[in-house]
Predict the structure.
Amino acid sequence: AAGVIQSPRHLIKEKRETATLKCYPIPRHDTVYWYQQGPGQDPQFLISFYEKMQSDKGSIPDRFSAQQFSDYHSELNMSSLELGDSALYFCASSSPRRMGSRAEQYFGPGTRLTVT
Amino acid sequence: AQTVTQSQPEMSVQEAETVTLSCTYDTSESNYYLFWYKQPPSRQMILVIRQEAYKQQNATENRFSVNFQKAAKSFSLKISDSQLGDTAMYFCASRSGGGADGLTFGKGTHLIIQP
């Protein structure tokens, strides 16, 4: 079965640079979520999108922005990168709301961002 | 706001034994969902089991089952006949039933299955 695709899988950036992470949800999934997992930490919810509209917002820094496109893929844009942004960034997707709001979130493999 | 607490940072059991991981949560929502996710060394987040709060029956998925005590806000995971491949971080998570709400995770329990 098709899974969530994230690119790139690894990214190295310097402080104050920008980075763009991409997420391609499972086919026919219309909701996308972004999470940040620091070393030895649990995943922290950043933001979610449903039908290309922002749906829920967590602890996303103002330096970060995200959007969902007409084909349901999503991009997380990160500017003025800091050393503390080094983390594993997960994208997850879930199936349409009409199938019931109990839809589970399925995670991609993550993008490992290293800021030097 | 939701909070999830896992009080066991690490557990170790012998292969084939049964192990129970604890989780407590707090929420003001009447409609919510609880999950257990597994994160092996590959760092992939894998959904293990799901429980809808409105269901009294405990969820079961093969060797994995939960003990959902709604009044006590407790959601423990039992792994039967543990296998070496079960070695991983296990995260308990909750979300409201609102649709596209993010998950709130506990700090995780590192489970080690010894041969």
User: Anything to note?
Assistant: The CA atoms of residues 89 and 110 of chain B lie 4 Å apart. Chain B touches chain A through 24 residues (CB under 8 Å).
